[in-house]
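Support reply, case 0932

Customer input (verbatim):
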Amino acid sequence: MKQLLLTLIVVCSCTLLCSQTYEITFAAQGDATSVDEVIATNLSTDESVTLPGDETLTLQSTATFIDGLENMENFELFTNLNEGYSEVHLFSTTDQEVSIQIIGLDGRILSSHKQRIPYGIHSFRLTGESNGVYLARVLMKDGARGLKFIQSRRGDNSVTYVGIIDKHEILKTSRAVYTLNYTPDDIISYTLHSGTATTIINEVPGQTKTITATMVFCTDYNGNNYKVVKIGNQTWMAENLKSTHYSDGDAIPLVTSGTEWNGLSDDYHDTDRAYCFYDNNSGSIYGGLYTWAAAMDGANYSSTNPSGVQGACPTGWHLPSYYEWEEMLDFLGGDELAGPKLKATGMEYWNSPNDVVTNESGFSALPAGYRDEYGDFKSLNSAGAWWDTDRASTILGYSHWLHSGYDKVYQGNVRQSRGLSVRCVKD
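Our regenerated output:
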């Protein structure tokens, strides 16, 4: 029978040795100057933490572990960032001796305290000598438990017994500690929100820093707000367009019938403008599927960089040309290698195999499939395709394609009456 019951409230982890810890804060510039909320996600593990924009994120390496420590069970740890200490609360069901040690990330025992405690809830105060993350170990008759705590100001490497506390006592000055684990070469994706603006920044952890995001509003006529991401010198939408109107308020013709879609020509007439959603599901996360005529909104084809064609894009944004796509792909290492850097991670959207995907660009490409020139929906979860402003002929439009299981980004010439996805680039 265990002699000591522990309750975990805030921090839960195995203790770590020889790990690198970084403190990340956030700032905004551009269309917004403050950050409301940050969602930090480790793209390799899908572990995620959400924090207020004015808080600090601790990135904790989990490369190596202290041998002989079990995962923490039933611990209660409060971190008081204002006062610069943490408190461990232990509930003992019997009279026994407990030992608590503070351990540096290099494995040295910095402080050790032994205390014989009777039945009850007991509080121990932990402080480290400087800012950063420390390891602690609680030793008892039935084994050892490990934890980590954050020191927010200089202290003295000490463990102090505070005494027996009331079961319902709350440390009102305690603040949440936001920690995300990583291993070397993991990519951390930061989604920063400020009002209706959302910017994505992806990077491999390398130092303590302030991440300053250029917040950009991307809102279509229907009021849909889109996430954006900077790739090289370009700023792209990080979601597929789903607007049902052009920016001047004119409706884009909705065509749900396969027979009616089959009747569209490829001659680039106004009557060939059409959009739909895959399987006519307007709630689809994959966005809309647009004919080339609908995507271009009456503009002539363009091969320039930038294209200068707003088309169906929101005000301040434009449809990319072939050369704008190629500029982005060159920045990511070329079309032979860019696929995994563009695709959304995991198996929720893309068909297997999708295990080598990193989405390190933040583009978060989704396999929205397409509607062929005959009105049939095809390739959901296995392919994604996006229009360019270039034409290969009077009936064929340029597009860029991603396929599940392939790293390459393909350039295709397809009938202009096909329904493909749209991504826009900031002017």
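We compared this against your earlier run and they match. Two observations from our side: Residues 322-331 form the longest helix (10 residues). The helical segments are 258-262, 292-296, 322-331, 339-342. Please reopen the case if you see a mismatch on your end.
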